[in-house]
Amino acid sequence: MDRRQFMAGAASIGVSGIWASRLSAAPSQMAWREDRRLFPQGVASGDPDDHSIVLWTRRPVDVGDRHELTVEVALDPDFRRVVAAARTPVLAAADWTCRALVGGLSPATVYWYRFIDDKGAGSRIGRTITAPRADDPRPVRFAFVSCNSVNEGAQNAYARMIWEDQRAAADRKLGFVLHLGDFIYEVVEYPEEVPHRYSRTVYDLGHIPDARKVGNFYVPTNLAGYRHVYRAHIDDPDIQDARAYLPFVCMGDNHEFSWQGWQSFIKYGATVEPAQPLRVAANQAWWEYIPSRVRKASGAALEQFSPPAVEKAAIDTFDDDGFGTEINNRIAVGSMTAYRALRYGKHVDLILTDLHSYKAADPTDRPEAAALESGDYPVIPQEWLEIVDGGRDYAGGKPPAVIAIGDKSITNYRKDEPAHTVLGREQKAWLKARLTQSTATWKIWGATNGTLDMRTDPQNLPAGLVKDRWPGRDYGTFGGGDMSGAFAERAEIYDLVRDEKIPGFVTVSGDRHSFWAGYAAPALPPAGFAPVGLSFITGSISAPGLGEAAEFFKESALRPLYVRKVEGVPPEHTINLTIKRGVRSALEYAASGDIEAARALTNPDVAPHLEFVDMAGHGYAVVSAGPDTIETEFVCIVRPIARATTPDGGPLRYRVSHRAQMWQPGARPRLEQRIVEGDAKLSI
Fold first, then answer.
1. Is 90 a domain residue?
2. Residue 28 sits in a domain of what CATH number?
3. Residues spanned by the domain of 4
4. What is the pLDDT of residues 577-601, one digit of tens each?
5. pTM (two decimals)
6. Residue 677 near residue 652, CB atoms below 8 Å
7. How does DSSP assign 357-407, residue by residue?
8. Does residue 464 lie within any of the structural domains?
9. Cα angle value 606/607/610 (rounded, 5°)
10. How many domains does the chain have?
């Protein structure tokens, strides 16, 4: 794209385009003095392509509704080689957030930028990087992260990421950070009411204006509430440093709207409520605080969101994909369309999907399902979850009239309903088209929440350990709620990869607060196992996970499946063995502490799709994608209870590499695992 095309395109959408000069650079003419107090949330950049990027800051002003800032972009941190400078608006209507679209940049190039007000007060200096051209053959390297719980932890992983990147060789430096959701947690605890949770201190994020109390949490009820939560998260110094150091590519998950929400529904306890104005508010706050190229219904202009007017109204009718047809629901969800793709050199097509805006209601969360509860067991019989997920398409269009689990049976309430969808019709069609048309070496699907099955083999529990006999046919899953529970839809995508012979298919996810590495497979034993790609899940930046929660479980016959607690020894997370190797392996290790004896009892059919799982992992993952190989490295930090006192973000628990050579379509991919440092014996 040349300057004329860029400027015309910018003018057509109401943006003051900023065009950089690639031919000349000159010293800054601005009288700049850094004053971070006036730019309290720092700076950020997002969604780079090979010639442009979105820059961001926030400069609150006490008077007026509109002001202007000057943005400068340079090839050096001292701004002696400025390539672009322009005025850009900052509006009260956008909570004084400011975005600038800068074009004319060189590909795969580091730039520095800053914002300056009319009195010469300036933001901190930011650093960003443009994407390589689509024909650039160099390997691509990026980090992927999720789940910043500033309320309950420290964001030390970002400090570690920056510290390592600053010391990395030129060909090992990161190009961007992919944030796969839960950038904020809209559920906020107040420390005067809940000073601690698990072993953690609850940190003060201030009181949410007009908040609603749900249990021990407070949640936003309007735009002001979401804006407060975003500011409180970005006020964290490690988040601010990371956003100033690297461009972020972001996709929201559930907490950007509501913990158990979907479409325009919120759910607290057993009560489901329509919340169309809240959905719009959540979308607007995300757009204001996350620099990106997402589409919004009010147009592509970067100055402000311009929310549509919607009313809270009952959502009672649904289309064949489970999407509420009520007009306010459609308008609210459609106020922002976040799914999108970014090409990053010859080797990476990054395909991001939104897994909460279009999903149908969870089919397991219906009153009829309560009759099939599995008593004391922590898992659900996999076969009944597959039946209700598949609906009328189950078993090749021959679903059973009755669902029978053990000695319990109910009418199949899903027999005449469509298969469950998380993606929705239009997004799924887009995803399929993007996968089949991509020419990149690696097609990397950012699925935000986990695609890898989380199951175990309760049929192998010792007799008498649980009062009632396991009612399932064989395996039990830990429930739906993420992409791994959408059996039919996930298989539909994976079958497309197989049938169209799509090479280099990889999924990356977050949300589970745990590290996982394995294979993308449409089915597991006894239904067969034929992987079509690779799958990775990153541990949380700071949010607590199941492994940590298990440390506080009451003593019971099943607690050894989750955690081994021995006097004088830190808790060990046997849940990793339960998921990867089966219940006998976990019980053996809980009793003896002998990892070799535990591995000897592995059930090879419980998790052939897994090479690694750590349900208590925090940190980030780094992908290196080249012409022939892809590597994902898990960088696991110690539990981030308090902010690290050293620049490196504190010590590591482990660093583990998972590497694969490109495989031929139809062949099985193979991960090679290497423990670079630390101890991960219960995870491998």
1. yes
2. 2.60.40.380
3. 1-131
4. 999 999 999 999 999 999 999 999 9
5. 0.97
6. yes
7. SSPPPPTTSSGGGGGG--TT-SSEEHHHHHHHHHGGGHHHH---SEEEETT
8. no
9. 170
10. 1
